[in-house]
Amino acid sequence: MEWWAILTVILASLILLLVIGVPVAFAFLFIDLVGAYLLWGGLSGLDQLVLSVFRSISVFSLLPVPLFILMGEIMFLFNIAPKMMDVLDRWIGRIPGRLSLLAVLAGVLFATMSGSSLAGCAMLGSTLRPEMEKRGYARDYALGSIMSSGTLAAMIPPSALGVLLASLVQISVGDFLIAIIVPGLIMAFLFGSYIVLRAILQPSVAPRYEVSTTLSLRSKLLSTVKYVMPLAIVIFLVIGLIFLGLATPTEAAAMGALGCFILALLYNGWDWQLLKRAATGTVRVTVMMFMILTGAAAFSQILAFTGATEGLVRFATSFPLAPIMYVIVMQIILIIMGAFMEPLSILMITIPIFIPIIKVLGINLLWFSVLMLVNMEMATITPPFGLVLFTMKAVAPEYSMGEIYKASLPFVMLDIMALAIIMLFPNLVLYLPSLAHH
């Protein structure tokens, strides 16, 4: 059987299972079981599959994943984020579109505490949206800014999805976490610029209102020291220690989780129920992600064993195209897939196919992986099936899906702009990791 026929059958079967609603992990597991039995020699093939699954998650580089998730759970459940938002609100003042800008800044702040786009959108949607409605903000303007802030979650460390992606591509997790900082800030800058410019050019979308200016500079500084500086220390424990070469990503993640735990105790006191919920939530999300990871690892091995990976690489590189054209085509494919599938599924399907081609072409894996992550975050707000869109619908059921789709489109275009900037200027990704090595 030709490699292309095998690849077609495997991918078609996988996509069919996902379309009919089979959970991602079980869809991969089913394909792996059938493939291992038929291609690896019956029951002995299943033994090999078990070993493959065990090896795929017995990797030290994956330890930061549950620790980053735990950081997010603690910060979210102990209600620390609203205190940070209040401090930001005091500093913003009378800037046009201030509440929408606050959503983006809070998204950046929340991204440093949690890698979850959905949690960020849910929190900001429930806290800021009612105030925006009260102040007469245009619906698409308000919803769009909240949803866009959710897309920053995986682009600013700590990032559980980033750790997974780096592990799958087999690049340094520490380098990857440092590399995504600048792209994340570029996205935040584009979102903030759009929000302010639109409020200036189209004042009706964000009517101005009186903001109290009675707070003294001393009061603002004190609240910043009380609520933002401790978070800055936690961020340093995660990113700074990795950047300075003082800790591995796993050690930094452990320090960050400990820092979040101490912050939670200082701000809210001891609460066994919340700690239990944080631990339970961490286990639930980690198990889900690792089940998908094990299925994807075996899936990659089956593709390689059948010759599908090698055949696809030979076929793809036979065209007289410049390497950058391959990158552009792959990004377009990811954008299209992002409209219909959730990020983890896309990564599991495309990494075994794209990465061997990228290696043969000699393209920098770190840079390409960051492009993939930007694309995956864009997928969360891409109509019609972006996960953040449905999270917003759950938070704001009175809005139609049409209104939510309309609100997301300007920010999808801004994400594409960020993708293009990073593609044109690879050093935006590569400079900080190279600095860390020196």
Walk me through what this model shows.
The termini are far apart. The chain has one domain. The mean pLDDT is 85. The relative contact order is 0.15. The protein is mainly α and 438 residues long. 77% of the residues lie in helices and 0% in strands. Helix 4 runs antiparallel to helix 10. It contains 23 helices and no strands.
Descriptive tags:
globular; mainly alpha; 77% helix; single chain; 438 residues; 0% strand
- Largest sheet descriptor: none
Which runs of at least 5 residues are low in confidence (pLDDT < 50)?
none
What are the secondary-structure elements, in order, as H or E? HHHHHHHHHHHHHHHHHHHHHHH
How much of the sequence is in beta strands? under 5%
General form: globular
**Helical proportion, percent range:** over 70%
Task: Round the mean pLDDT to the nearest integer and report it.
Answer: 85
| Domain module count | 1
Q: What structural class is derived from the secondary structure elements?
A: mainly alpha
Cα(first) to Cα(last) distance is: 50 Å
Total helical segments: 23
Number of strands: 0
Task: Tell me the radius of gyration.
Answer: 22 Å
